Amino acid sequence: MPVVVVTDSSCCLPPKLAKRHGIRQVPLHIIADGEDYRENLDEIPAGILKTPGVTTSGATPADLEKAFAKAIKDSKGDGVVAVHMSRKLSSTWSAARVAADKYDGAVRVVDSRSVGLAVGFTALVAAQAAAKGADRDRVYEAAVREAATIESMICVADLDHLRSSGRISAAGRMLGSALSIKPILHTVDGSLTLRERHRTFSKAVAKMVDAACEFSGARPVSIGVQHSDAPEAAAQVMDELTRRIPDVVTSLTAPLGPVLSMHVGDGAVGVMIGSTLTPLD
Q1: What is the mean predicted confidence (pLDDT) over 246-258?
Q2: How far apart are CA 2 and CA 79, in angstroms?
Q3: Strand pairing report for 182-188 and 151-155
Q4: SS3 10
Q5: Burial class of residue 177, CB neighbours in 10 A (0-12, 13-18, 19+)
Q6: How far, in Å, CA of 83 to CA of 161, rounded?
Q7: What is the pLDDT of residues 149-163, one digit of tens each?
Q8: Which residue in 52, 123, 194, 253 is deepest, having the highest Cβ count within 10 Å?
């Protein structure tokens, strides 16, 4: 069997798509009233994400170790490449490194330096390399290249959720909250930072689309749109991107999972532009 790719549920990949490409997902967690809910595995009660005191946590070392052990066995010696969200945004990468150390080099761990579909695109690039027969090191290198070049942006209706979770810098908190300004955030070297600020959310989304088109240019790209309970806005953004970007190799729209939605709030819309993903079957 080819190298097996493992990621975490922050990747936002639809389960059927992940399964089709042989990608294993380890769940993130939501903790409420002493209950631990595993994203994409457990039924999460309606309304729980807006309940005071609810928290989130990364993939556990135990879950990662179990996933790595099974993936190593299934790979029949080819090994595992694990792609996880930025080490600066979650404990998952660190936990994965600890778990990987137990397998004598059979697992290589990639810091995607991002979150959401940017993680998913990086995992898909790795899985496509593995499907073509690349060994563990070459699959790892393919993932690292994609992680280094992907562009990821998101517009949020407000910064309250990110402020309370400590996911943005102090400067970003100050600038984004001034005069109810609507921010465009992007990931820079694994951190979520302020890219632009605008007076209205619609203006911020329009400028995000402009930035994505400028970043894409005329080269072949893959595009992803993700959202937090905003499917119509996401569909409009995808329509605009596919109309304006001349060479779209593949595209994907997906909702943010419960864990990421807790951090960005309802209405958020994000765009990812990748460079090496081939058409998805």
Answers
A1: 95
A2: 8
A3: antiparallel
A4: helix
A5: middle
A6: 25
A7: 999 999 988 666 555
A8: 123
pLDDT > 60? residue 197: yes
* Domains of the chain by start residue, with CATH: 4-148 (3.40.50.10170), 151-274 (3.30.1180.10)
Q: Are 49 and 81 in contact (CB under 8 A)?
A: no
Question: Which residues are 100's β-sheet partners?
Answer: none
- pTM of the full predicted structure? 0.91
Nearest-angstrom CA–CA distance, 122 and 104: 24
138: its two tokens: 């070459």
Question: What are the tokens at 251?
Answer: 């595209």
> Cα–Cα distances in Å, from 11 out to 85, 98, 123, 169, 226?
8, 20, 8, 23, 11
Half-sphere CA count of 115, side-chain side, radius 13 A = 31
Question: Residue 8: phi, psi to the nearest 5?
Answer: -120, 170
Structural contact between residues 230 and 270, judged by C-beta atoms closer than 8 angstroms: no
- The neighbouring-strand residues paired with 110 are 83
DSSP 103: G
Does 130 or 35 have the greater pLDDT score? 130
Looking at residues 53-82, what average pLDDT do you find? 94
Instruction: Enumerate residues 6+ apart whose C-beta is below 8 A from 70.
Output: 24
Write out pLDDT tens, residues 24-67.
Answer: 999 999 998 888 999 999 888 877 777 778 888 999 999 999 99
Residue type, 106: A
Q: How many angstroms separate the CA atoms of 261 and 214, rounded?
A: 27
Identify the band that residue 266 occupies on the pLDDT scale cut at 50, 70 and 90.
confident
How far apart, in Å, do the first and last CA atoms of the chain sit? 20
Q: What pLDDT is stored for residue 276 in this prediction?
A: 80
Nearest-angstrom CA–CA distance, 27 and 227: 19
What is the total residue count of the chain? 281
